[in-house]
Amino acid sequence: MKPFYSIILSALVILGAMGGCTEDFQQIDKPKTTAADIDSKYLFTRSLVTGSGISVGVWQYQHQLRGSVYAQHFTNINSDFTTANFEPLPGNTIWEWYYARKYFAPLNLNHQVLKLARGEDNPIKTGVARIWNVYLYQILTDQYGDIPYFNAFEKAKPAFDPQQEIYADMLSELDQAVEQIKDNRNKGYEGHGEADVLYQGNLDQWIRFANTLTMRLALRVSNVAEQELTIPHLERLDVGQTMQSVDDAARILPDPNGPTYHVKNPLSYVSQWNEIRVSQTMMNFLKGYDDPRLEVYANPNEAGEYVGLRNGQPTDSLSLRYNNHYVPDYCNIGSYFTGKETPHQLLTYAEACFLKAEAAYKGYISGSAEDFYNQGIRASFRQYGITNTDTIEAYLQGSASYDPANALKQIHRQRWIALYPNGREAWSLVRRTGHPQMMEPVYTFSGNQEMPRRVPYPTAERRYNKKHYQQAVSRMGGDSQYTRVWWDTQNP
Fold first, then answer.
1. CATH number for the domain including 64?
2. Secondary structure of 138-192 in the HEC alphabet?
3. What is the domain count for the chain?
4. Phi, psi (rounded to 5 degrees) for 309
5. Angle (CA) 297 418 356, round 5°
6. pLDDT in tens, 369-408
7. For residue 451, what are the domain limits?
């Protein structure tokens, strides 16, 4: 496979020649030596890589500064990073990077991919890009709530669409994209080819990715739209066409020799900066289950012990005892995750199994919830090279043994563990289900004692898109980190 950074550089050359986005993307005044037609596949590569969140800056704002500390996979020991203490943080960066940042914004890039693919009358490129579009928008709407969606790139000041309508359309888009690919895959249409650095043009895997995303989205809204969205979409879902093995996982491979940090493993940077420690909450669960993933998830402290740090340490304590207590006495993230070639996971087979387990438990799909639960644990172990049959079976028959009376709580706990270090998705799981129970931080800022429920809108939208911003805020009931998004209604 051609290194994706080489493809990205080709995309940058094209983008540089274009000089940015215009309303008529292909009809641009350009030098005579520039190609007459833009190939959408190069823009698609760029969207896949930037949209995956592999860039260390994106990773920090989505995980280190929010999801991973809210869902207590990690806690911060940099005294400047106070989101673990629940200090509010404006939502500027992720919004800008996904929607608007020049040469980077994956939603904007994929919007152009869709326009070009449809202009080519290419249903394969279109179908795949539609699936990717849903993945990208799910990231943003789950963090902010109502966002520009239907006309996001058609107007300079687009309206914010209700999350309920966004979810309904995303689920419909996944259904239609899968059918579009199935109906046209054998008709000679060219795909994205080597530019598809997620699945290398494998349409079966794109279909399995889309159907697994359908489960993630349909379950996320099950507390608020079970009859309208969850049941209809899951009843007609072919579970045999969801992810079936670790090979189906959606992941981006970092490039250790790439030209920028946007294509390298973000955790290799963060680990060296000594800014995070494994949360005591995660450590307690791993130790409580006698979980062999402990030695993968964490490096031992300087004394050779596995010790997690309780979230929300006071900033003055962090400042005073950073080098003589917090750094040496608590565990950094495990070396597996910091390797230069460690895959950056978007959606794993283990998560797919736990999605099936919950859906089966609630009667949305056929199959055994217990079997899917056990498959999820096995998949997570094997993802990290834990393949000893006796080790796996001892875990499944020990404290993690499936208990029908507490099955849903178990499914959510094991999914939370398996999601590590995808804190953004773990945070969504905790918000929706209340599982697992988070530990109270040591210190929180006045008026911010509870776990945040969303990311506040960026200041630029308040200033320059005031009308639509105010409509969204009025509809949602506020713009604080405690304003709940539409699907987050039932749990503390």
1. 1.25.40.390
2. HHHHHHHCCECCCCCCCCCCCCCECHHHHHHHHHHHHHHHHHHHHHHCCCCCCCC
3. 1
4. -110, 130
5. 170
6. 999 999 999 999 999 999 999 999 999 999 999 999 999 9
7. 4-263+341-349+421-476
